[in-house]
Amino acid sequence: NPVGGGTTWRGLVKGESGTDLTAGAGDTLLVNAGQTGYYTVLYDDATFMQLVARFATLPAADQLGLIQNARQLGYSGDMPLSRLMQIAQHVSPSANPRVLTALAERLEALATLYRGVDGESVFRAFATGVLRPIKAKTGWTPRRGEDANTPLLRAALLKAMSELNDETTIQEARQRFAKLAKRPRSEEHTSELQSP
Question: pTM of the full predicted structure?
Fold first, then answer.
């Protein structure tokens, strides 16, 4: 499926048989558009960088697909895990909450791989730099009319920022817990992370 116009080709390619497609000038080929197939796609460097540059214009399903591809193929060693970081730099805080949740969870998982090795502090700074604007937009407490997936995003962000040792997040969590602990037991305690 070409990103940016052109013709959409739909078809089934079997194991040993291949299909050659010609992309128009300015088109970027996106394989498995809509993520209807259960497989990963290993893009060449040039195509991958074109897709990353246009990441914000892709439908949420295809944004999720690129994030999952980068994770799975990075973990298998078929491509560098740095591709996930390249995607992260192009994710808008206004993206679909499910896309942002997946990103937060992937960065949190990578933080555990970096624990105790060279580059840990550099990665933590990078990841918190990516997630901080998303956390600022999402906030700590629910807003009336917010997307049904935002509470899950909020929880994923707070978990990831804590795993990344973000001092601002940890301090505010402690302050909020201290306030909650001072409430009379007769008050009904409801989670501030849940929808109203």
Answer: 0.81
